Amino acid sequence: MSVAEKTEKKSGGLSETVSVIVQALLLALVIRTLLFQPFSIPSGSMRPTLLEGDYLFVTKWAYGYSRHSLPFSPPIFSGRIWGSEPARGDVVVFKFPPNPSLDYIKRVVGLPGDRIQVQNGQLIINGVPVPREKVGEINNPDITEVNRPVDVYRETLPNGVSYETLDLTPNGIADNTREFVVPEGNYFMMGDNRDNSTDSRFSPPSGVGFVPAENLVGRANIIFFSIADGASPLELWRWGSVRLSRFLNPVH
């Protein structure tokens, strides 16, 4: 084989490798944009449903697509295409309205036109108190972030969606609110960790306020990995903190 033939063969092999890499990256981009996107939970606002260190997949097609479905949210169009409305009780990833470069995750409790209020820690939707039953206590800092027992309540929304919430502080700062009227094309979000969640009960710029439909990224679907103690999945030597019991748990 001549030098030219060897060079041509190496060049051809390099081109094929580059082509495979480019195709793989394009496929990953399509999957991330249209189908699934991984997210990690950085804060405790959704405890006990989601814990810091949970890694989950979000379904991107659940509510259609907006510019925020694309990496870096390019302003190439406004509104949503193939849009559908979230169900009350969905756990949703969305762009923080005052700063869309930030991703937040909360539960949808208010739909467009709803009247939302909290009184004595109880959620009220359109004048009707949402059933709220104390189901016990949790005394596990990995779940509650505090070294003491914490009351746990089960809330059941009008459409039957039921989930647990934490009550870290009786008569907390947002346990009594004014009545909010959700504008058309917007949603009211709350964290399950009711006394440690910056959500729609708080106004921008520090709070979430109402969340426009365009800001919805997708619906939280399933936990595929979880690790405690602030460890990174890449720190293999800290895998003793992996929460195996949370693997493949659906998000409700």
From TrEMBL:
Pfam families: Peptidase_S26 (PF10502). It catalyses: Cleavage of hydrophobic, N-terminal signal or leader sequences from secreted and periplasmic proteins. Belongs to the peptidase S26 family. NCBIfam families: sigpep_I_bact (TIGR02227). One of its GO terms (biological process) is signal peptide processing. One of its GO terms (molecular function) is signal peptidase activity. Its EC number is 3.4.21.89. One of its GO terms (cellular component) is membrane. It is a single-pass type II membrane protein. Its main location: membrane. It is found in: Membrane. Keywords: Hydrolase, Membrane, Protease, Transmembrane, Transmembrane helix. Residues 15-225 form the Peptidase S26 domain. This is Signal peptidase I. The active site is at residues 45, 106.
